[in-house]
Design goal:
- The chain is an alpha+beta fold and 370 residues long.
- It has a domain of 170 residues: C2 domain (Immunoglobulin-like, Sandwich).
- It is built from eight helices and twelve strands.
- Strands 7-8-1-4-9 form a five-stranded antiparallel β-sheet, with no helix packed on it. The chain has a four-stranded antiparallel β-sheet with strand order 3-2-5-6, with no helix packed on it.
- Strand 5 and strand 6 form a beta hairpin.
- It comes from Friedmanniomyces endolithicus.
- This is C2 domain-containing protein.
- InterPro entries: C2_dom, C2_domain_sf.
Length: 370
């Protein structure tokens, strides 16, 4: 006798409704997933657009540094002028030991010609130093292009060069020209009395003592300057930018202290360039000294530490693509170059001090022309 059993209706329904191991998603879940992905893509696109907009705004306001493509406002070409600094007379005596001076002239040209930025300095010129002379003769020429027809102001300051201390100012001369035209005759070896404003009190005290002792007759000196009008500046694509045409010259500066710090020695007599020296140990120095024969040239020749820095003045104008300001790799760089804020002002002073240290002028400075 066999007995057969059948599942209850509830069991059958439960088996049919049991979930499968790998259920397939329906159309509604696919739609939700697509909407979610589209929303993410839209948010990413908005973020990229905002970043690009911020970068464009910062670039429009001003570059962070490096190459600056800021255009100069266009204006008609100006005039090419030649400034000649001839000589000076009756200069004060800044050096007590020699009862003389080491004078040079520092010139700055100001005009209403626009610049890219307010931090851009006026164009400058410096004459060589005449040693131990209160009646110096320079006869130095300075050619400047695109001087505007609205006129200019030429500031001339006579200094006494003092490498060990701050240079003493001996006097000032300011030349004002209201307007420059095609038929402007210029100036022919015009004499200007030097003003003593901001000048060295020590130098003028020595000068007054010399006048009292009747070794000299005048307290204040005179500076002789000429200005030649060379005509209109040819169209050069500079939009009226003022620049130096000449002279083309080079200046070589030396500094033994920096040479010692950098390990740089002077050039050989054969003309070889100085190379970075390596510090020898006492044993190496003693072995080298014993290996050299007595009385030889190599034994007598002693190389001195000396750092060499060169400046070059080439014929202008400088191409617009070479205009660079600074590279703002750190937040303090902009303040250092623009002297903004207390920290920027202090860093700017330190930067100028180091620059003057490297490119210092003294009796070893060599001048030359191309």
């Amino acid at each position: 006798m066999s007995i057969q059993t059948r599942p209850a209706p509830d069991d059958v329904n439960n088996n049919e409704k049991a979930p499968r191991d790998n259920p397939q998603p329906n159309g509604d879940s696919w739609a939700h997933e697509a909407e979610r992905q589209a929303g993410k893509e839209e948010e990413e696109e908005r973020g990229h657009e905002q970043q690009a907009k911020k970068a464009a705004e910062s670039k429009h306001d001003g570059p962070a540094g490096g190459f600056d493509a800021t255009a100069i406002p266009e204006r008609p070409p100006g005039y090419t002028l030649k400034f000649i600094i001839h000589r000076a007379t009756n200069l004060p005596m800044a050096d007590i030991n020699t009862l003389s001076s080491d004078p040079y002239v520092h010139a700055q040209l100001y005009s209403d010609a626009p610049t890219r930025h307010k931090e851009d300095p006026p164009i400058r010129f410096r004459t060589p130093t005449i040693r131990r002379n209160t009646e110096p003769v320079w006869d130095e020429e300075w050619v400047v292009a695109n001087v505007p027809a609205s006129g200019f102001q030429l500031k001339l300051r006579v200094y006494d060069e003092d490498p060990a201390d701050k240079d003493d100012r001996l006097g000032n001369v300011h030349i004002y020209v209201d307007r420059v035209t095609d038929d402007w005759p210029g100036l022919k070896e015009q004499s200007y009395e030097m003003k003593a404003r901001m000048a060295s009190k020590r130098a003028y005290i020595i000068r007054m003592a010399a006048v009292c002792l009747r070794t000299t007759k005048h307290i204040r000196g005179n500076l002789f300057v000429s200005i030649e009008n060379l005509g209109r500046t040819e169209h050069d694509g500079q939009n009226g930018r003022v620049y130096t045409v000449g002279p083309c010259r080079w200046i070589r500066h030396y500094d033994p202290m920096l040479g010692r710090m950098m390990g740089m020695k002077e050039a050989d007599e054969d003309g070889d360039e100085p190379k970075q020296a390596k510090e020898d140990t006492p044993k190496q120095q003693s072995s080298q000294s014993h290996s050299l024969p007595k009385g030889s040239k190599d034994e007598k020749k002693v190389k001195k530490y000396n750092f060499q820095a060169n400046q070059m003045q080439l014929e202008g104008p400088v191409p617009l693509q070479l205009y660079h300001r600074y590279v703002e790799f750190k937040p303090f760089v902009k303040g250092m170059f623009t002297s903004s804020g207390i920290r920027g002002f202090i860093l700017s002073k330190a930067l100028h001090h180091q620059h003057n240290r490297v490119y210092s002028f003294d009796s070893q400075t060599v001048w030359g022309h191309y």
